[in-house]
Amino acid sequence: MAYASLLSLAQTLDQILHPQDQSLSLHHTGQQIMRSLHEKVNFLVDFLDVISPKSSENIIGLEGRIRYAAYEAEDVIESNMSNQIVSEWEQKYECLQEVIEEVASISEDLVKMMERNEIEIVQSKNTYPPARSTNRTAIVGMEDDISRTKHLLSLPKSELCIISVFGMAGLGKSTLARKIYNDLVIASHFDVRAWAMVSQNYYEEEVLSRLLHSIRDLKYDSSQESAEKVVENLYKRLKDKRYLIVLDDVWDGEIVLKVKSLLPHDSNGSRILLTSRLENVAEYADPNSIIHQMSFLHTDECWGLLRGLVFGEECCPPELGELGRKIAHHCTGLPLSIVLIGGLLYKAERTREYWRYIEHSINAEHYGYFSIQGIITFYYYQLPHHLRACFLYMGVLPEDYEICRSKLIKLWVANRFIKPEKSKSLEEVAEEFLKDLIDRNLIMVRECNYSGEIKTCCIHDALREFCQMKTKEKFNSDDENLTEVHDNLRHISILSDLNNQIPKFDLADNLDLRIRSVTYFFGNSPHGTYFVKSFRLLRVLDALTIWFDEFPIGIVELETLRFIALTYWAKHRIPSSISKLRNLETLIVNPGKLRSIFNTSFLPLEIWKMSRLRHLLQNLLLKKHSYQIMANLNDNFGVILDVMET
Description:
Elements: H1 2-17, H2 28-50, H3 60-83, H4 93-115, H5 143-153, E1 161-166, H6 173-181, H7 184-189, E2 192-199, H8 204-214, H9 227-238, E3 243-250, H10 253-262, E4 271-276, H11 281-285, E5 290-293, H12 299-311, H13 318-330, H14 335-346, H15 352-361, H16 364-367, H17 372-382, H18 385-392, E6 403-404, H19 405-414, H20 426-439, E7 444-448, E8 454-458, H21 461-471, E9 491-495, E10 517-521, E11 540-548, E12 563-568, E13 586-590, E14 615-617, H22 624-637, E15 642-644
Parallel strand pairs: 1-4, 1-5, 2-3, 3-4, 9-10, 10-11, 11-12, 12-13, 13-14, 14-15
Antiparallel strand pairs: 6-8, 7-8
Helix pairs in contact: 1-2, 1-3, 2-4, 3-4, 5-6, 8-9, 12-13, 12-14, 13-15, 14-17, 18-20, 19-20
């Protein structure tokens, strides 16, 4: 996150040096110090941009120094920005001068390392083939598993039967299940199909609701219905029909038993297909369940999959074939390892030298990269610096969580992970980063819209575990006390426990915590947000899963906020005091039960004077005249607005 911390500091400095409100301009001394720091920070950003991935592990120590210095400077600057005590900044200049000296020292160390050939500089950018879908090649070697599972699902047994596909992480269980779920033969065999992701931390109501939502002809929203109503509607949808239920990534047999007990048993050949890392999950629900164990790929299958991922329909150059087979062999038959290395090679230079470097680096005998986490660790250090923070941020998401593409991009921008380019908006650059990470097989496309554009995406569990381990910035309901976390904690993700209990906090004495983003992943209670007021430097508040009866007025005091998302049952208009959030760029308001009457009349006129506000939720614009209202206000106040999906 060193590069991202520099980018964030550079954008903060730019905002200070070019303020929209001239009353916040610095005196001459402050201008000099800020410009000096800005210059040195930009030098480091540009330097990291051109460092070869081969040199990444050589600068790990320096990255720690960079991150600490950038955090220290930004905390000092933003603390004063949020309080608007510009006249008192002189008291902080000594601290900033120390940061300037440290940044200069880091820059000198980097130059010396380059002179000693410890750092390799990339002279020019490589050109790569156009992006392509890897879904077809990703099933190489699974043909037998797919054929076997399809046969089991079609056995002439009338009673409801459970088929379990199990195996270690990275073997492709979910890929196999999705391939079968979408298979035309299977689709014609069953009258109804339903899919639900389960994961380790699940709620019965949510699993059942997901099954109901996935039924294709479902026309209504069940998110506001009681659990009893969801069960009733699910049962009606499946009654007297031959159905296929897929429960993906199951860790606890109890949920399988529960779902099975709620389904109709019509003796018509219905099936439950589940995937799990654990062999005994299905047996818990049904001792007579059929179990299929996923197998590792053979060497030829490994090479076939890798070759397809890298070259598609093209032929592999003869000079790379032998090295390619060795690389495939080092992946030890694990499809996920091959998919990741395939993404790495697809985006890299296709030379014997580089392929030899990859082959040597992942050789299990020399480096111990026999585990999937070893492969991911190696891959991470091959990533360009500008992609690392965007990738690591995926670790704040819950397990198996699908996030909307447009929302993810705005979160990256709000967290200042994106380097500005003169000819493109930050969102356009972020779109390119997302497509790059997808091409590298680090982020998976889960759903596309009718025109083929990405709608939602997610990350593999093993990659998510790496992101959490790497950043150590993930916080969830298993942690009980934020007061013991280190000062560099920046991003918090909060989940309720299995009983839907929200973690409780007492942070009244911890106003100096430097949290920049807080994301909630639970529903039905607004009581968990009171402590956010302690985070004076907060940029992102994603509380879309919390239902508010009243607007949480306390957040208007957090002047550094750039992104707000919440569900507001709008009995009253949004307060005019929201205009105090002069840095706000994105406002997402889900009107909940009052969706049918929610329109721009609930927005105060003051909102159009917020010069940085660019993004409003589409749900705010339900009535035709709303578009004209926005157009007029846009002309009057110069606010740039767009429409986004959730």
